[in-house]
Write a structure and sequence with these properties.
Blueprint lengths: L15 E14 L2 E14 L3 E5 L6 H9 L6 E6 L2 E2 L7 E5 L10 H11 L4 H14 L15 H13 L5 E5 L7 H18 L2 E5 L3 H7 L2 E6 L4 E7 L11 H14 L6
Parallel strand pairs: 3-8, 3-9, 6-7, 7-8
Antiparallel strand pairs: 1-2, 1-4, 4-5, 9-10
Helix pairs in contact: 2-3, 2-4, 3-4
The chain binds adenosine-5'-triphosphate and magnesium ion (MG).
Keywords: ATP-binding, Nucleotide-binding, Transport
Pfam family, one: ABC_tran
Function: Involved in beta-(1-->2)glucan export. Transmembrane domains (TMD) form a pore in the inner membrane and the ATP-binding domain (NBD) is responsible for energy generation.
Length: 265
């Protein structure tokens, strides 16, 4: 049975923070060329919470790396806040899957890192780090080193570090993928709360459709060979999101099909 599901696409994004026009990227290694991104055109408004989904190899990480300023695109236009990207910036906070904390720094020093780079005064840095570690429910780990923390704790420190410079854009690449279900659920709730309070623009890559439906106001579904956007879906679910809601399940089924996963009929 294939009931018709009404899906609204994103149309009005408000004031754009991110603009990509016919963005393309090819990796040219000794063993051949891979078109990681074919031609991606995308506008994301300030304060949007967008999840990017799609099968392995469809270019999600490449897109995030371009927006972070780690990878220079082969073609097309990409602007953040009206400016071309010419390298990493404290305006863009990055959280990737592998925690990427500096192992030789304490949790507090990790959170302070971007502030130190920006030349902020010691007293101010200490206060911001203290407040952010409190925000991610880790008020007492400031003097611990990453090896003394659990995976979930490290990821929370990484989120606090990404927030420290109050970036207008948070780029998150499968940040919760390696965590157990309980830790993952609590970090999802924490991120929704941070978004509600601070209103950063968030671009969050996940393979988990339920996670995307809990978090985002908009879903971008990508497809590989070449990497491209195949759906742009507005998530019309009220908050707090209930996984048992019929609409949640309708959207879940729709996105599963868009990604090309078989779902039970
Ligand atoms: N540094 C690289 N050199 C060569 N090819 C690369 C490189 N990084 C990525 N690719 C290729 O580009 C394509 C897109 O990769 P990318 O990592 O962006 O995909 P992804 O959607 O993030 O996948 P996953 O869900 O597995 O993380 C893949 O075919 C990949 O093999
Ligand atoms: Mg990836």
């Amino acid at each position: 049975m294939n009931a018709r599901v009404e899906i609204s696409s994103q149309t009005d994004v408000g004031e754009p923070l991110i603009t990509c026009i016919e963005l393309g990227h090819v990796y040219d290694s000794g063993r051949g060329r891979t078109t990681a991104l074919g031609s991606v055109s995308l506008t994301i408004g300030r304060g949007e919470f967008v999840c990017v989904l799609g099968p392995s190899g469809c270019g999600k990480t490449t897109l995030l790396n371009i927006l972070a300023g780690f990878v220079l695109p082969a073609k097309g236009v990409v602007r953040v806040g009206g400016h071309a990207i010419n390298g990493p910036s404290s305006e863009r906070g990055v959280v990737f899957q592998d925690y990427s904390l500096f192992p030789w720094l304490t949790a507090r020093a990790n959170v302070e890192f971007g502030l130190r780079m920006a030349g902020r005064a010691a007293r101010e840095r200490v206060k911001i780090a203290h407040d952010l570690l409190g925000l991610v429910d880790l008020p007492d780990v400031g003097e611990k080193y990453p090896f003394e923390l659990s995976g979930g704790m490290k990821q929370r420190v990484a989120i606090a570090r990404a927030l420290a410079t109050r970036p207008s854009l948070l780029l998150m690449d499968e940040p919760f993928a390696a965590l157990d279900a309980m830790t993952r659920g609590s970090l999802q709730a924490k991120l929704v709360e941070i978004h509600r309070q601070e209103q950063p623009t968030i671009l969050f890559v996940t393979h988990n459709i339920a996670e995307a439906l809990v978090l985002a106001s908009r879903l971008i579904v990508m497809s590989p060979n070449p990497g491209r956007i195949v759906e742009d879906i507005s998530v019309d679910l009220p908050r707090p999101r209930r996984r048992t809601a019929p609409r949640f399940n309708e959207l879940y089924e729709h996105v599963s099909r868009a990604i090309g996963l078989e779902t039970a009929e």
